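Worked Example 4.2. Consider the chain below.
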Amino acid sequence: QVQLVESGGGLVQAGGSLRLSCAASGSIFSINSILAMGWYRQAPGKQRELVATITRSGSTNYADSVKGRFTISRDNAKNTMYLQMISLKPEDTAVYYCWYLPNYWGQGTQVTVSS
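Applying the procedure from the previous section yields the following structure tokens:
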């Protein structure tokens, strides 16, 4: 089993930056066997959507809406994944969830971008 805890959300003005963190704990065997992880977000009244993913080998993928503004990374030694967000827009407002393959989820962290 793997437990995920997000942190780093908050209120920021448009154009600002935030860095989200996702700390994993639990079975070291399970954590080391994870092949992919990522970030999703869900805005009020909308479906949860993929933001970015990163594989165990470091390959990344981003939603078109965040390309060039968000960067996903991981620190294997700390079992922590990050999402650096810059040039934030009001439409980035959502609850952000970290996800580990196959189906591990964090509790979510709120990101609110004011105009």
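The CA atoms of residues 99 and 105 lie 5 Å apart. Helices lie at 28-32. Compare this with Example 4.1 before moving on.
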